[in-house]
Amino acid sequence: MKSFHVTTFGCQMNEHDSERMKGMLESLGYAEAAARDDADLILFNTCSIREKADDRFVAHLYEARALKRRDPERVIGVGGCWAQSQKDAVFRQFPFVDVAFGPGQVHKLAEFLTADSLTAQGFFEFEGFTGHLPAKREREFQAWIQISAGCNMKCAFCIVPTTRGREVSRPFEELVAEIEVLAADGVKEVTLLGQNVNSYGLGLRPQPRRFSELLYAVDAITGIERIRYTSPHPAHMREDVIRAHAELDSVCDHIHLPLQSGSSRVLKRMRRTYGRERFMDRVALIREHVPDCAITTDIIVGFPGETESDFRETLEVAEEVGFDGAFTFIYSPRKDTEAAAFSDEFIPHEVAVERMERLVEVVQRRARERAQRFVGRTLDVLVEGASRQDPTRLRGRSSHNKVVNFDGLGEPGEIVPVTIASATSQTLAGEASFLSRLS
């Protein structure tokens, strides 16, 4: 039996795509290898959002080249956004790669592997959703659901429209049927994935749909206890979706709302289609309808032309909102994006690093302060396994997407009430409520 090993870089959509790759390969008779050097097929599912992701991947790719030199029969495959962005150069730069494919061509990997002759090939046209492929889930009780692919926004810094194409939504009934099957198979938590989930279904014909409709339909499926989604766009975050959080027990108390910058001037240059006022209005609406909702975000520091005054506006928003967590990044120019042409306005690296340090201090301090609201409360925690810091304890997540490490009993996939004793900016700690479990 031939074996494979997959290394995944990047976002939740890539994690979803990797699970589909694994499921497809097992359906072809391959077995997953625990280590790369034990695999006949070495696969990389790549990200190209930031330069650092590119650099990490290339280092891994050269490790695979060394393994192929020892065993020329090994096959090396590169999928995902980096492969798509480098489609004209991948085989020239890395001649040891056997197959490369974009996010819309994952199924072509099977076609390549079953061909009579394995000559180097690339597949880069969008031909279908990876959600149609079989999956090998990391956890039996959790599942990623691809509801759409691509993006119609034109953010100046973002390469996603280039690598994943125009937005296409999967049929409503198809998604509901897929989740019904997953629920019957023991899945308790689903995460709905799209580059801009808020705009799901608007282009479906003959009957357009809304994202909130999908949330209500999934909530009605027996067995689904938690619904998460990522990522929405602040310009399209509508009241109907926020009300779904308030009205549906299964929709988690967590919204990831990417800010990117607190300066309306910078947001306009980013082509984000909203300003600071609109973002703060959405935050106010969320907290009006779902007061306990955790709000997390993405923030880019050092976008070309960002002044000290612009950056202070970002600090002001971070202070005022009090995000429960944030992914913070120093701007990285990407090929084929509008902002890559702003080179005469690039921020010196040392300035961006200093701004990043100031931002992280505010984000972590406010997240730590926000987390104190959980101390003394009992939260329902979906057990995921042993704690990474202490294997004698358990680890899971609350509805607010907070990692909870706790003492007590619980099996992976079980929802356990945990009384929270302490909180940091990133994690909660406590003890399972034994009496509650008995009841």
Brief descriptors of the model:
5-stranded mixed β-barrel; disordered C terminus; 6-stranded parallel β-sheet; single chain; OB fold (Dihydrolipoamide Acetyltransferase, E2P); 439 residues; pyruvate-formate lyase- activating enzyme; Rossmann fold; 14 helices; alpha/beta
Helix-strand blueprint:
Elements: E1 3-8, H1 12-27, E2 31-32, E3 41-46, H2 51-70, E4 75-80, H3 81-85, H4 90-93, E5 99-101, H5 108-113, E6 121-123, E7 142-146, E8 148-149, H6 160-164, E9 168-169, H7 172-184, E10 189-193, H8 211-219, E11 226-230, H9 239-247, E12 254-256, H10 264-270, H11 276-289, E13 294-301, H12 308-321, E14 325-330, H13 349-371, E15 378-386, E16 394-398, E17 403-407, E18 415-423, E19 427-432, H14 434-438
Parallel strand pairs: 1-2, 1-3, 3-4, 4-5, 5-6, 7-10, 10-11, 12-13, 13-14, 17-19
Antiparallel strand pairs: 8-9, 15-16, 15-18, 16-17, 18-19
